[in-house]
Amino acid sequence: MSGAGRRTLVAANWKMHHLAADARAFCAHLTAEGSPYAAPSAPAVEAVVFPAFPLLPGVAAGLAGTPVAVGGQDLHPADAGAHTGDVSAPQLLDAGCSWALAGHSERRHDHGEDDALVAAKIAAAVRHGLLAMVCVGETAAERRAGRTLEVLDRQLAAALAELPADAGRFAVAYEPVWAIGTGDTATPDIAQQAHAHLRRRVAEARGAATADALRLLYGGSVKPGNAAELIGQRDVDGFLVGGASLDAASFLAIIAACA
Fold this sequence. Notes:
This protein is of the alpha/beta class. The chain has one domain (3-258): Alpha-Beta Barrel (TIM Barrel), CATH 3.20.20. α5 runs parallel beside α7 and α7 (148-160) crosses α8 (188-206). The chain is built from eleven helices and eight strands. The chain has an eight-stranded parallel β-sheet.
């Protein structure tokens, strides 16, 4: 458990990595005998895997009957329509997803997604009963300019406008853009300061009970070697893991550091 009795949550974001054989091997390792995810009972650390879209049905099948959830890395705000290359919330559900990721910095940067579009995607996820994992975070330039809290406030406010009252239906991931895939990790103090600020803002907008129940994840070069120190911070409730989640043994080692 993390602070205030919140159940730790660790998510694997595979991004545009892995083929079907890699995904099968990962699922087999993650749920092998001796793993906390080998049995259907709920382990101490909740886990979710976000594969690339073509891998979703196979991963959902490989994790069926286990406590590991599956999520989509993105979704379109519309339920259906002429949106080539996009995926809808009903399609994610049909593929076996229970989670949807929204607002990842790579979507914001690579595809020009702004806060309004991210909010519309969150609304679509919520409308269809998907749990939403919302990403917020500042770039290196914004941090140097002293604008970190301003950026977090803006992104969080847009997300909260569409998120449900029940904090169990969503999570927020703080991912400083300057730490994603760079090998530079926010220090435990930096992560704690950002997470504490986000929790205060949620308390102001939704009340203390919602803020206390909300799980705030850290994302940005998380590895087995730094996970224990980061998770030891009061307001860090888990991780959104990128590169280190591609290998099941590494992902399990991060989970073990949390447990």
